[in-house]
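FAQ: What does the model actually see?

It sees only this:
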Amino acid sequence: MKYSFFAAALIGPFLAGCMTLGLAPVAEANPPVAAPAAAASAAAAAASAAASTSASMIAPMIEKRETLMATGYAVISVQNHKLTAQQRLLAIRASKLDAYRALTEQVYGQHLDATTTVADMVVMNDTFRTRVEGVVYGAVLVSITPVGEDTYETTMSLDRQVVNDLRALYLGQLASRRK
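And it is asked to produce this:
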C-alpha cells in the first residue's frame, strides 16, 4: 500500500487542533508543571536540529519572487449541463480549481510515480502519474477571462508570506512525524 507523503503532514494539524504561526503563545489558565531544565534543553535541541534539517532540505526550492502566480483553464462545451449559462459557470469554477492546483504545485511540489516495462531490451510500456496535495489559503483571485469562444482562464496569486507560513506548517508537521 502506498502512503501519501503529504497526507499525514497536512491532515495532522486539523486532527490535533488549531495552530497559530508567527504569534506569541497564549497563556493558559492552569499552566503545566515545568520539566527539568536538562530534559527541556535536550528536547529543544532535538526539535531545533530536526527543524533546521527539514529547512535545509526545502530552502533551495524556495523561489525569490514576492508573489506566486498561477493560471487555470477550463473548456465550456465539455461541462456536464444542458443550459449554456450553467456550462459557463461550471467552466469558471473548473478553471478556478485548476489555478488552485497550479498554486499547490508551486508551494508543495508534485508527487511523480513512474513505471517502465522493458522486454527484450525494448520499452513495452511507460506510465507516469502525478499527484498534488496540500492546503492553500489566502489566494487572491486576479482575473477570470474568456479565452476564445469556448474557454475560461482564471489567474490567482499567493503572497510570499502566506507561502512561507504554509511551508513552515508543513516543515513543522514533518519534524513532528520524525519524533
